[in-house]
Every structure is written in structure tokens, then in C-alpha cells.
Amino acid sequence: MTAELVRGQNHPLSQVRLEIRISAGSPVLAGATLGDEHGTVHGAEWVAHPGAPTLPGIEVSPQAAADHRLAVDLAALPEAVHRVSVLLALPERPGGLLRFGALAAPRTAVTGLDGTEIARFDLTGLDAESAVVALELYRRQGVWKVRAVGQGYAGGLAALLADQGLPSAAALASDVQEAVARSLARAVPAPPPPDTPDASGSPESRPARANGGRTPGGPIDYTHPGRRPGSAPPPAGSQDASSHPAPEGQPPRPVAGDAVGWSMDERLYNQVWGMFEDLARTTAAYRSAVDFADSRLEKELDQVLADPRARLGAAGDAAQEAAHARHTQLVDQARAALDRDVAQLAAESEVVEPALPAACARWDNPVWHGYRVPAEPPMALRLGDLHLPESAPLCIPLLVRLPLERGLWVDSGPAPGPDDVFLDSAETRRLAMDAAVALAVRLLAVHPVGEFTLQVLDPAGTGAQALLPLTRTGAVTVPSLAGAAGVADVLGRLTRRVDLVQMALRGGAAESLPSDFDAAQQLLLVNDFPHGFDDRAVTQLRYLADEGPAVGVHLLMVADREDAAAYGPLLDPLWRSLMRLTPVPDDHLADPWVGHAWTYEPSLVPSGSGILQQVLTEVATARTKRR
User: Fold this and answer.
1) Closest CA to 541 of 491, 493, 498
2) How many whole angstroms separate alpha carbon 287 and alpha carbon 436?
3) Are 60 and 48 in contact (CB under 8 A)?
4) Distance CA 571, CA 540 (A)
5) Cα(580)–Cα(545) distance, rounded to whole angstroms?
6) CA 607 to CA 609: how far, in whole Å?
7) Tens digits of per-residue pLDDT, 146-161?
8) Is 151 helix (H, G, I), strand (E, B) or coil?
9) What is the pLDDT of residues 274-304, one digit of tens each?
């Protein structure tokens, strides 16, 4: 069971190869220092940071991001190392955040290589600090432990490093921030003056990224690195971009599956994530250019107004008009570069969307009309679509890997409708339940027969109408016991299942599970939480959210957080453990590269479509044949 640590608490580590996962909601830099038995860091070579991300036994991310995974091998650390301090710091950049108090509390977790959480710590209570020691892995009497630290420094990274005894702490902190600035998309150079050759934002004026020629803000090279001249031929079943030559001077025409991967599905998944990153970075470059143009305009106007002789009269008017003209020119150039990249991404989307497998396709994709129950589970699932205001209507599919690593929560709380008028509670709850049922059907449909089971908890029966496609086809059975008794029965059975599987895995006896044990993954759809839940049921639900995903038990909750306000902070870990989705468009999700707020739209069935019924009928037929 995951240990939820509070500041100062420690927990033993039973494994030497670990991952430290960090989720901050906004780009931060992550690093680690190696200390001796007194915790002293003896030099820059004892610090892993974005400019030097790899040391013996530890590897950190080479750039700032909202999410990090640090790799740790305690057995590979030098013998002199007795302490590993995991640190976070805010990047120093124009317009960037200056203190952790302006962020949601960063979350840290120590996990095994299989993703199983060992310990978790939320860094609450930070305010003016811009750097913090989050966790400490330390060795005592030959045993490694993790301690929740949460020690912040208002003096930033330099103060943190100096406190650990590092000589020349300020110089190293400056080097680290410089390395981060080079990697941040928002740290792109300010647009050059209009009279220079590179003012158009040509590709020669921007450094190419290492992932196959995609460049932030510049033209996107869609030619996969493995299919460039002199490379191996493309994988079977895919098309080479060279088979669709573009007119001279234009980028190659995009093709579906133009990414790395062993299978077409994996290549498509990686291609979608490449599109996601490209749109994030080119938008960041555009916003940075506009910020520069705005600040330059403000500075030029201040200079004009500061001189009494130039402030009035024709000369002053001409100077102001010239400043505004230069501002307009810079913004127009940035917009032209963004529009060019968005057009290329839109062209890529047009060929990728029709090629996506059912698990990743929209409900209106023809692939669903020819649906047959698959023989193998998919590698990813579509949860909805993401878009940014500057590039609408271009949408990027929100894909997550399977099996799910965390539960899903469809928020049925207050939501804005057309014209920013909030929908009434009943309408929001109906839309939330419709979105949840569409997700549940998708999960059920994309798994082979017998490998995925759906259970429903709807104690008050308020979701009966939305559940009709599932109940009519027999895809789900509502608990025979009503109300709180049904909740207790279902949660009790799933909790015992998690306990049984965990004991078998820990004892290395997974094959000794009872012969009648249902090995299928379980999805529990909970509607109208916390209605029908007593304190014991709430505790069991939290347990399933924490421990269930690792052993194939997943949650899909439809709930309004305010309905559970009476539980206070007791349920905070539950909400944080779930991925929040909304039944209507909402800009609450951030990308892991530059931290844009993306508008999420759920993947809903088109109005009047009978595709859910058709798919579920096919699933029910396949189940009958299997029996």
C-alpha cells in the first residue's frame, strides 16, 4: 500500500531501482544532489541538473517540464554517497512564475520500475519559495529510506545549493538556469528587427530539435528520420512521404504513421504526441513573440512620452505611429509563422484521424461502423480532444496508454454552457453521465472478450437513462442490492480482489490464484458519489483508487466535488489521484512541455447516432459465442 508521507516522515525502500515522479502543473526544473554522510555536496560534479542530467546512479530531465520522471539506481551510486536530495526550482524567465505559492502543490511519488507507488508526498504550504528540496533518499546502517522534506528557499536555487555546502553555489545555479532557458520554448530569441534576413522566422534562424527535425515556431519537417535519404526502407504497411512528393519549396506531404514504433498503432500514437508537442511549442513561440512586441512597443512609447519636446506635435505623433507600425509588423510575422505551422499540422491531422484504430478514433469515424471485437487489447485510448485558442479549430486527440495508470473522474459540478451561462445541476449531471458511459463503452469495446468487465454503482438510480445502452445489451449488471447495501457489496468484493492479487504477486505465486478467479480487468463506474457511501465505503473507494490500477481494478467516477465537501480534506488524496475530465469544454489540462492551458472536449457520440448500441450488440454476440 502507498505510504502518504507528511513533512519529516520517512519510509523504508525495499527496492534499489526506482523512479521519482513529479507533477507540478506548470514547468519546473528537477534535479538531485549527492551528499556524504553529513549531507555535504562537495562539488558541481555531485549535482544532476538539466545541464548535466546524468550521474552514476541517477538521471534527471534535461529540460523544465510540468511532469518529470527521475531514474534512480541506489546500487550504482558511489560508495561515498549517503544522501540523494531531490530538488525542484522555478525557471527564471520573463513573465514566468516567481514563487511556488502561485502554483498548485507539486506532487511527488517514489515508485518501482513497474509503476507501483511506494511513497507519496504533496508539497503543500509553499509561498515565496522559488526552490525546494522535495524528497531525500538516505542510507542509514545499510538501509535506504525516503524522507519527505519540503524545505523551501526564497533565495532560489543558489540558496538551496549553498545550504548543502556546495562551493560556488551561485555560479552553478546560474549555469543550471541557463541550461533550462536554452530548452524552454518560451525562451526563444526575441524576433530580430524587421530589416534583418531572419525577420521572417525562417528555419535557419531557429535551432532544430533532436526529435527528427520538428522546430518550435519554424516549419515542421514531416519526413521521419528513419526514412530520409540513405536510411532503411519504411516499415511494411506504411507509406513513405517521398511517395507523395510536394511541390518544390513546400514541406513534404504528411502521411499517417510517420513516427517511430514497432507497429502501426504505436507509430500513430507517437505521431499524435509529436503533433501535440509541435502545437504546444509553436504556440509558445508565437506567444513569446507577441510578448516581445508588446514590451518593445511599451518601451518605445515610454521613450517618446518621456521627452517633452517629442511628446507633442507632429514629431511625437509620427514616432508613436512608427512604434505601432513596428509592433503590428512583428505580430503579423509571428502570426504568419504560427498559421503556417498550424496549416501543416492540420494537414497532418487530416491524414492521421482516418487512420486511427477504434480505441483512438472519434465516435463518428467509419472504423466504428465496421467494428468487430478485437483479438488483442490496444496500447492507447482516446479520452477526448485538446485545442488552443490561437489554433482553433485544430484539435489534438488526447490519448492515454493502457492499462490505465490512474482512475478517471468526470466532474458533474457547475459548468458553463452557451454564452457563459452556467448549466443547471440536472443538465450537468446528465451530460457527465453520458460522457462517462461513452468512455466505459469504449473501454469495453476495445478489449478482447473476457478481458475487461464493467461494474456500475448507481445507488440512487439517477443514471438509469444514460446506462440503458449497457443494461439493454447485458454488458453490465446493476447490483442486486439497492442503495448503501449494493455499494458495500460491490466495494467489498473489489477490495478483496485487490488484496488477493497483491498477496499473490508479493509472494511470487500469481499462478496459484483460485481456478474460478476472474482474471479480467475491472472497471467500476460510480455515479452520484457520495450518495449511498458511508465512512467505510469511502475508505474502500480510496483504497481502490490507490491500489487498484496496479492489479487491474480501475475507477470511473461521476461526481461533483462539492457534494462530498462534508468529508473535508479526507478526500483530497482521492481527487488528486484521479484524472479530471469535464462533460463540456473546459481549459483545465496542461501540457508537459510548456504548461499551456488546453481546452478539453469529451469524446461524445453524435446526437441521434446508434453506434453505442451497435458496438455493444457486437460485444454481447461475441460473449455468447465464447460461452
Assistant:
1) 491
2) 35
3) yes
4) 12
5) 13
6) 6
7) 988 989 999 999 999 9
8) strand
9) 999 899 988 988 998 899 999 999 988 888 8
